[in-house]
Amino acid sequence: GAVVSQHPSWVICKSGTSVKIECRSLDFQATTMFWYRQFPKQSLMLMATSNEGSKATYEQGVEKDKFLINHASLTLSTLTVTSAHPEDSSFYICSAPPMTGGRETQYFGPGTRLLVL
Amino acid sequence: AQTVTQSQPEMSVQEAETVTLSCTYDTSESDYYLFWYKQPPSRQMILVIRQEAYKQQNATENRFSVNFQKAAKSFSLKISDSQLGDAAMYFCAYRSASGANSKLTFGKGITLSVRP
């Protein structure tokens, strides 16, 4: 199956700093990528939809100035958590449907664990 | 808006036995996809099975099968011959077929434990 990578897999940062998380589709192109947040034992909560070449679409309640999304190319989307605080500590997951073939399926990255001290 | 409901937070099954995980959904659309995803302790999301709403035949993938009842908006997952590796969190998900890049809507998930 198609592969989506995330980097870093694990990050610890100090409160007030910014953290960038990368999501890459390794063997397919994607005009859209999705960013989720997941707390332990809970479901995935969609934060935003990343669109290549245009602005991201944020879900209600998600601060767009805090969670900056850039879809730089057809294989890369980044999520930057700005001025991170301990409550931003969570597991962040990206997913992407291929542009061509099997578009009904989304492929998930392995996730990034963020801990803000 | 579409909703997906998984009302059982936890279930347990004896190894080699069969277990059924329940899921209901609500939508006004006629064309959509339904999924079951597995999330093991590694937290990597793994697609277990997929069902196209226009197909009447229930999807099957080896030990995994679904009971898709479109009129009742029900989509349960049956795991046969349960194995220790099946222990994980399972999510039911819905995706509209109206847009190529439509988002997934997840249920709350169910934690499945397998007793040796």
Topology of this structure?
The complex is a heterodimer of chains A (117) and B (116).
Chain A: E1 4-7, E2 10-13, E3 19-25, E4 32-38, E5 44-51, E6 57-58, E7 67-73, E8 76-81, E9 90-96, E10 107-108, E11 112-116
Parallel strand pairs in A: 2-11
Antiparallel strand pairs in A: 1-3, 3-8, 4-5, 4-9, 5-6, 7-8, 9-10, 9-11
Chain B: E1 3-5, E2 10-14, E3 19-21, E4 24-26, E5 32-39, E6 46-52, E7 60-61, E8 64-69, E9 74-79, E10 88-96, E11 104-106, E12 110-115
Parallel strand pairs in B: 2-12
Antiparallel strand pairs in B: 1-4, 3-9, 5-6, 5-10, 7-8, 8-9, 10-11, 10-12
Describe this structure in words.
The complex is a heterodimer of chains A (117) and B (116). Chain A is mainly β. Helices cover 0% and strands 50% of the residues of chain A. In chain A, strands 2, 4, 5, 6, 9, 10 and 11 form a seven-stranded mixed sheet that branches. A four-stranded antiparallel sheet of chain A has the order 1-3-8-7, with no helix packed on it. Chain A starts with a strand and ends with a strand. Chain B is an all-beta fold. Chain B is built from no helices and twelve strands. In chain B, strands 2, 5, 6, 10, 11 and 12 form a six-stranded mixed sheet that branches. In chain B, strands 3-9-8-7 form a four-stranded antiparallel sheet, with no helix packed on it. A two-stranded antiparallel ribbon of chain B has the order 1-4. The model of chain B has no long low-confidence stretch (mean pLDDT 95). Chain A binds chain B through residues 31-32, 34, 38, 41-44, 46, 49, 91, 93, 95, 97, 103-106, 108, 110-111, and chain B through 33, 42-45, 47, 50, 52, 89, 91, 95, 97, 100-101, 103-104, 106-109, 111.
